[in-house]
Amino acid sequence: MTSIADIAETQRIAMLSLNQRMAEFEAHLKGSPAGADLSGLQKDFGNFKEHVWGVLSALQEQIANMGKCVDVMEMRHRKKFLLLGGVPELPDEKLPECVSSILQSKLGITGLTPSSINTCHRLGTSSNGHARPIILRFDDLRVRGEIWRSKSKLKGSTYVLSEFLTRQRQSAFTLARKLFGVPNVWTMDGNINIKLPDGKRRRIFCSEEVTALATEYGKSLEQEGLAGSKSGSVNTSPAPAQTSTRSRRNIKKK
Description:
The protein contains six helices and seven strands, in the order ααβαββαβαβββα. It is an alpha+beta fold. The chain folds into three domains: 4-77; 80-163, L1 transposable element, RRM domain (Alpha-Beta Plaits, 2-Layer Sandwich), CATH 3.30.70; 167-232, no CATH class. A four-stranded antiparallel β-sheet has the order 2-3-1-4. Strands 5-6-7 form a three-stranded antiparallel β-sheet, covered by helices on one side. Strand 6 (191-195) and strand 7 form a beta hairpin. Residues 224-254 are annotated as: Disordered.
């Protein structure tokens, strides 16, 4: 697995090599008399350009691999979390009691108590007319799994249960739903699953994989009628790999 030290070393070697080659070119140019044949220098420049692109490509690949590793580790940390939306905000609300009551009555989860939820608080800054989602952390993965498997019982209610995805996976999930339809895209244990037009199922982790599938199956935001929307301006052409960044959502740890 690529480490930060490997990337730093690659960058250091690349900088030394680039500086050395540039110094050689400058010295050659300064020492060339007027009207001298520079065909050899042009050939050297072509080789130098190819070398630079090779180094940059290797560095980009290492950064992309590091981003994937960080994303996997962050998603593993979020495995015990769920997000519950649609719960009205009230003054002096007691969220653990409120949430456990909702999950028991709507999902039929017996034996669930406020103490079953290790973390329970709202995310983001309060705003008028908008109920912030509630982040839940369960110490017992079996309880979390039972709740997640029962989430279909919330259909028809104001409540929405979702997994606490990393920013990279949330972007991929949103884009996939726009391109392949909401019923054909879902998450399970932090993995994004897509049911493709030919009936096959594919598991993806980033937007680049979504755009590759969209290209393969002839999907685009324009075809889906979303090109004019603010959120529909996503480019579905292949793009450079992006690294995962930690979500700005704050998690209270106990």
